[in-house]
Amino acid sequence: MNKRIGVVTGGGDCPGLNAVIRAVAKAADRRGWEAVGIIGGYDGLLEPPQTLPLDYRALDGLLVRGGTILGTANRGRFSAKTGHGDQRRLPDELLEETRRGMEALGLEALVSIGGDGSLCIAQQLHEYGIPIVGVPKTIDNDVGGTVLTFGFMSAVDCVTQAIDRLHTTAESHSRILVLEVMGRYAGWIALFGGIAGGADVILIPEIPFCFDSLVAKIRDREARGKHFTLVVVAEGAREKGRDFVTSAAQSENREARLGGIGSVVTAELEKRTGKEARCCVLGHLQRGGTPVPFDRALCSMFGTEAIELVAAGDFGKMVGYFGTHVGALPIAQAVAKLKTVPPAGDMAQTARALGVCLGD
Ligand code: F6P
To answer: Of the residues 257, 261, 339, which should be mutated to test ligand 1's pocket, given the most ligand atoms within 8 Å of the CB?
Structure first.
């Protein structure tokens, strides 16, 4: 039977969104179904609808193309996350408008590609009776129930390359180089990227830090003849007893915008050690550009699996990567709790075993 499937991308963009769109559209095409892109996030479903046909020729080059050809939004009527990640319920009128929008477009199901915010919306749409499946996207890797989200490995690659570059200049000038990376309330990017790049200090939100510990690490390195230090700090890292550092005033129905902890750490280390320190904020470089090969493959698996779920009528599920295979779990389970770094887990222990200072 011919079906029309909608594909929507929500929240911040990240490498691999187009690769998932391609995989969904190709897998749909193989079944003789039609895939339709929804433009500008869930808003594109509302009157007047905004769509993009995803026919075979429209998929050229999507595997490697960064961003999303559909556009995305992480603000406006569909925001389901506010403040420090609190969930918000969408009004019933909006859910009903969405249902009507899908009906008007003749969509039998929706594939929602997004992070925890978009998946929270997906769960609410599912509870309202809209046939939907989710695909976990985010460089932050903080969606529960899946070992990895797509985009994460591409961000880690970007961080690692940045550290490699900072390494040589830090060493040449005998400086402290602080690299602030993204990740919101989770330290996955900082920890994976930091270990991959050989950072000496890695500060993550899950382990509040104290400056004494950082200074001790720098002094120890000096004593061993290492006159430079590489510090990776997650944007959500904070000093013990202090709040998150934000880069913008909180606006209504939006999550707080984190940023600025890198400069705080840089200034304090310079003051306390007397060494020259510089800060580099990697920012949106981590979200741009082509996905790394692992993400391209993961996106392809996720997209095709999403169509399997639609075919089986297994709605309210999110595809996930479980280390050896791709499968599915209830979206409700995935969004119940943010997946943060276990402070005593394998990656943190690896860092400690390498002598990396985690700031505690
Ligand atoms: O969730 C992805 C992410 O890049 C976070 O790591 C970061 O805090 C946030 O989005 C930045 O969002 P924006 O692009 O809206 O400033």
So the answer is: 257
Q: Which of 49-53, 69-73, 128-132 has the lowest mean pLDDT?
A: 69-73
pTM for the model: 0.96
Q: Model confidence over 225-267: pLDDT tens digits?
A: 999 999 999 999 999 999 999 998 767 677 889 999 999 999 9
CB of 138 sitting under 6 A from ligand 1 = yes
62: DSSP letter: T
3-class SS of residue 55: coil
Going by DSSP bridges, is the β-strand pair 317-321/109-114 parallel, antiparallel, or unpaired?
unpaired
Q: pLDDT band at 270, cuts 50/70/90? A: very high
130 alpha carbon – ligand 1 mean position (Å) = 28
Q: Where are the alpha helices (DSSP H) in the chain?
A: 17-30, 92-105, 116-127, 152-173, 188-197, 211-223, 261-273, 293-312, 331-335, 346-353
What local confidence, expressed as pLDDT, does residue 88 receive?
86
Catalytic residue, chosen from 140, 142, 200, 295, is 140
Q: How far apart are CA 313 and CA 327, in angstroms?
A: 15
Residue nearest ligand 1's atom 15 by CA: 12
* Nearest one of 116, 127, 174, 108 to 309, comparing CA atoms: 108
The length of the chain is 360
For ligand 1, atom 16: residue with the closest CA: 257
Q: Which two tokens stand for residue 115?
A: 């992070």
Are 154 and 123 contacting, i.e. CB atoms less than 8 angstroms apart?
Answer: no
* pLDDT at residue number 250: 66
Nearest by Cα to 132 from 8, 266, 263, 292: 8
Mutate to test the pocket of ligand 1, among 182, 245, 338 (most ligand atoms within 8 A of CB): 182
Give the bridge partners for 328, in sequence order.
Answer: 319
Q: From the CA of 184, how far away is ligand 1's center (Å)?
A: 7
Q: For residue 140, indicate whether it is catalytic.
A: yes
